[in-house]
Amino acid sequence: MTGTGSEVDELLRLLRSRDVRLEVRGSRLDYDAPAEALDAGLIATMRRLKPDLVDRLRATDPPDPGLGNGPGPDDGGSGPTDGSGPDDGGGGDVQVLATAPASFGQARQYRLTVDSDTPQMLTVALRFALRGPLDRPALERALTDLTVRHAVLRTRYAMRGAEVWQEVLAARPVPVPVRSVAPGQLDDAAREWAGVPFALRVEPGFRAVLFRPEPTAPTGGTGTARDQDRHELVLALHHGIVDGWSAQVLIRDLGELYRAAVTGEPSGLPPPAADFVDFSRWERGYLAQESTRRTVQAWADEVRGEVAPLRLPTDRPRVAAATDAGGHVSATVTPELVSAVAAHAVRRDVTPFVVLAAAFAWFLHRLTGAPSVPLTVPVANRSDPRFDEVVGVFAHAPWLVVPVRGAESFDALVGRTARATWQVLARQSVPLAVQSEALGDAFAGSPNRVYLSVLDLAEPVLHLLGIDPVPAEDVLLAGARADLTWHVRPTPDGGMSLVAEYAATLFDLGTVSGWVDRYLRLLPRLLAAPDAPLPRHDEGEPA
């Protein structure tokens, strides 16, 4: 049996990510692979797709990088190259334990990945700088137990007609290869490794690696004990299986499962009350309810006449493109400004998010002239307590439509933003696509989006027995999911970080940097005079 071209492409991406090299010898397909890179299920897939792989490799001249006939890197051993490859019998098929239609979030993230030229933008990658004696076998057991506990970590996808389905696989050991990296090369190594896209029809969207800095001792030395106790753990997860809340649950559970693996004691984690397949089924029932449809329609009827997708001023003409390589601008919100935002929120009986979003809406109104500013904003979508400890992509990014025209002061705009936020929470379990359809033709397909993410969760902290606690560090990968995305989250010093992700096909770095700077100057100005008429020019500009 042969496969589709996309299935072969996904398999080749997976083999690249695991440093597997293929070679065609006559009618044979041999491989060279690091230890633990191939399992029985993957070999079975290679065997099934052997004719397509052979044709693809024979047509590649020169061979694709990583798929030629050279030796693979030494990650702790190499696989057989003597003919015991995927076409020689043995092995076994992957066992599928459960199937169900994918959730809306899963299906959207899967389709974006398949259609994208930059699928790595759908990967969430976290780094942890481990300092202390690491028990690597215990870490592998803990990661394996993590996939046992959270079935979404061992879920792949299949197409049934035009519908995306999830397939939950039987648990199997999670390998954690160790890779040496030269001093100063860790950032690039982490981005390169995490940036290899997942082959979601073949493998689950979860993998791990340990980077070990090369010893700093003089030539001929063996390095210091400190060198031996330094590792960088990197976890890569497809966005179809994780959101911000889920990352907190995952990292907490990993720490407890590692403690259990090291000590031999049972973990203190209670059995999950549900799994993600349960949520997918619940979601379908909720969206089929007449009350849900009425809620969405009432909101759409209220805002439809005043709202259209934002048209930000661009540096280059807009062209039709499924993806964008993207760029990033980083800035810091000082602890003093964060405190001022929080104090104003308390006085107005709203959340800090509402204050930040109201200022952002006014900034975008000045930039575009839009009478109502539509933003997409993340919501947790965990109204059912059964799903509090379940890992998966629950979060939606529904429309927050802020009516700006006619607002007499910042306080008035804060009140309008608060009302719009309550409307978002009332329909937080309704996916963006359903809301866009209700808004009409202007929002059909993939409308221009400006995304505002204000998280009240700090980066998760990994606690491994015998190792210093370490907060996660994001690995920023190339790709833009919207015209403009602002990620704001707290920092340990009481401030906030602001990372602006933008579509590089539309905007220059200097343009977005300027917008960030203008917003950070506008915000304290609004807070200083919340009852005054809203400013229509930046400070220092002529009126």
TrEMBL record:
Query: Where is this chain compositionally biased, Gly residues type?
Result: 67-93
Short name of one Pfam family? Condensation
Q: Where is the TubC N-terminal docking domain?
A: 8-57
Q: Which residues cross the membrane?
A: none
Q: Condensation domain: from which residue to which, for each copy?
A: 99-432
Annotated region (Disordered) at 56-95
Checking InterPro entries in the record gives: CAT-like_dom_sf (IPR023213), Condensation_dom (IPR001242), TubC_N (IPR041464), TubC_N_sf (IPR044894)
Q: What is this protein called?
A: Condensation domain-containing protein
